Amino acid sequence: MGTGSDIYRKPKIRDGFEGEKVIYIPEKIVKEAKDKTQELFHIYITQIGFFPKAAHHFRERETGCRENILIYCVQGKGHCILDNKQYEIGPNQFILIPATNKYVCYWADELFPWTIYWLHYSSDKIEVINKSLNIEISNAPATIPPNENSIRIWQNIYKTLEMGYSHENLISASFSLSYLLATFLFPERHADDHYEGDIITRTIEHMRKNLHTKLTVEEMASKNRLSASHFSCLFRKATDMPPMDYFIHLKMQKACQLLYLGTDHVKGISMELGYENPYYFSRIFKKYIGTSPKEYRQKNKIIG
Q1: What pairs with residue 44 in β-bridges?
Q2: Domain identity same for 61 and 168
Q3: Which structural domain range is residue 106 located in?
């Protein structure tokens, strides 16, 4: 694979796109904020920007970047080279480039230049974080559902930092960054209400509406027109739990709410959640929560 200059010979513009927005947070400011309250800056932003129709936008990083880079394309398209592989990036796609010393290059398409929201972020434990979230240089660009949520969060972060580098503003931006990353890494959990969601999201919603019943894996699979084995595999891959365990988990979550907020007897709560035998319900509750229903209610009794 050649370098970016081998494949892209148009004039290179680093900044100056009409309508662009860019904020760079000085290293001194970041260091002072971390020194003051290290525990509040588990991850933090160093740069944030918006490039509309960024014709001839080009970045080539011969030795990679010491920070993570998130680029979200909303219009047009661009290209990137990651781990010696070239990719195209279109609308509703993003790349999340981890801190690396490997060659990285990305640029706007010549005919249909991309419009992108982007930011750089880091952490004192960035390598550990990337490993935990499987953020690797070999990852290809990913597609997410059309969703204004991510853009709203980005705009909130930008407006916050635009008001200055007060300690409170930097903390707010840092907290919002975690939420923003979640919308990209777990898009099905943060899609706008009008988005139908994927199979897993729809199934969980179906579970929540039927906590009083005895759903089976076969019924849930049939609802999604899948075999029970294929459905179970997809569900477990997405949630790290088998479908029935997840259903019971939701039932126990609801039981905790009822015990905490209500005055119903355990038997009544058991019936409400589809358990005809209150003793069996109590055993299941203790298995998942660690205490009996009565002990949970007593321990978490509302006072005042």
Answers
A1: 122
A2: yes
A3: 4-189
3-state secondary structure of 165: coil
Domain boundary among 189, 214, 235: 189
Q: How do residues 232-262 score in pLDDT, each as one tens digit?
A: 998 888 888 899 999 999 999 999 888 887 7
Dist. CA 122–CA 304, nearest whole Å: 44
**pLDDT given at position 5:** 41
Shared domain check, 145 and 264: no
- Residue 81 falls within a domain, yes or no? yes
Contact between 116 and 71 under an 8 Å Cβ cutoff? The reply is yes
Closest among 73, 187, 87 to 137, alpha carbons compared: 87
Q: Are residues 46 and 98 in the same domain?
A: yes
pLDDT tens string 50-70: 999 999 999 999 999 999 999
Is the Cβ–Cβ distance between 151 and 115 less than 8 Å? no
Reading the block at residue 110, the tokens are 């010549």
User: Is the domain of 143 the same as that of 165?
Assistant: yes
Q: What is the pLDDT of residues 131-150, one digit of tens each?
A: 999 999 999 999 988 778 89
